[in-house]
Please model this.
Amino acid sequence: MKRVLALTLTWLIGTLPATAAVTDQEFTELRAALLALTQRVHALESGNTALRTGSEHVARGKPSSSWADSIKLKGDLRYRYESIHVENRDARDRNRIRARIKVVAKLPRGVEVGFGLASGGDDDPVSTNQTLGGGGSGKNVRLDLAYFNWTASPNINVVAGKFRNIWYRAANNELIWDSDYNPEGFAMTFKNGSFFAQGGLNWLESDTNKSNTRFAYGLQGGFSSNIADNLLTMGIGYYDLDVKGREVFFGDNDDFFGNSFACADPVNLIGCTYLNSFREAQLFAQLETQLGELPLIVFGDYVRNTAADRFDTGWAAGFKLGKAAVRGDWEFAYTFMDREADSVFGLTTASDPAGGGADNDGHILQGAVAISKNWKVGFTYYQLKRNEDLGVEEDYKRLQVDTQLKF
Model:
């Protein structure tokens, strides 16, 4: 348009006779006309720029005020084959899937709202696996997450509802907390430089119409420090689950997941309750370093239930070498875990080693290879002994082969 205007001016000037005399009035009228034409050109150019910008956003699938800017969708799918061998029992083989999807919305004033669904045939608080079968019948989906997370300050977050576990787990080990356990209630996290702390008030049962209503709480704190090219994280934790004399919160009347219990009617398993509460004192440490060009994590985790008189200690230690993050990368991990019968609350600890719960110890081997950034194939092998404290000791072996994809 500017080029058209320039050519127009040139033509106008050229059409004037060289000897023509232009009056002041004619000059004023000409100047006004040219000014109006210039303003019109600018308006047209601005409109054209806006239209071009809008077209580019639409072409990329990103409107300038799209809901996609504030809402994110993520999830994962895992297919698993596993074989379980328990001493003096028939071997068990099965195929299972785990599917999870989560929607997160970013709201004003530092508020995040999350909602998640997951597979799972029952209400197990530490597993969303679904065993395949039933002639191809439909499978259940359940509420896995429903929370809000408020960033109260750059260092403090407050979360409430049903949310991902806030507790730090050295090398993601499951001595005290299963990785799939999503607590319900309230929590607050704090982080300032190298220091971190978190606290939680979580419901085991909130309905006063039920006889086992109970609230649990926990506190955890620690620090991370760089030592040369290594990162050391250390901390302590304390978790109070006052369940002595209470019935089970999930499962059958005698499902205490390896913890000590007693029944008013032992024959018919009526009136069964926990013999101990769980006041778990924890120490943990994790070192992140390098072995050659591979990342290496070494960790230790220790817990003691101060509310129990015996079978009160648990610990885990091990390492993880490599990281299956991009195509061709691999990782391998080893853990030795020992959970005495009343060292940890059996309902919330790891559900796979020895069939879940406390009163077991042994070896855990894991490995994986990345097919791509979002896809990896791996295995886990458990070789443990269970029922050492409260029952008849059994050898327990379990092999899991997984393929997992994330988006």
